[in-house]
């Protein structure tokens, strides 16, 4: 998924959740060494996969993104909650995602 489409999609999803203009977008680029696993705590945030060429496995309460899995009927691009990113290969892999971070609007600002 291209960054422009991801930004538009995440903006729509944040509006659906009541954060019309109260969120920030952040590009994330994870680099995982061979067989490395990392956990991302994304409570209240939304993460969206960027690009289609990803050798990693990404799983969360939303589902799984793993292009090597033959038993998946759907690849999940949107993730939230506790996100596990795994590199099942013996080489370094890159995982690019866009993160939407909601924040409280400061009502004292003019």
- The CATH topology annotation reads as Jelly Rolls
Low-confidence blocks of residues: none
Helix/strand structural class: mainly beta
Shape: elongated
Radius of gyration: 15 Å
Give helix and strand order, one letter per element, not per position.
HEEEEEE
Helices, by number, come to: 1
Strand order of the largest sheet: 1-6-2-5-3-4
The termini sit apart by 36 Å
Number of strands: 6
| Major sheet | 6 strands, antiparallel
Average pLDDT value? 89
- Top CATH class: Mainly Beta
Task: State which percent range the strand residues make up.
Answer: over 45%
Instruction: Summarize the amount of helix as a percent range.
Output: 10-25%
In the CATH hierarchy, the architecture is Sandwich
How many structural domains does the protein architecture include?
Answer: 1
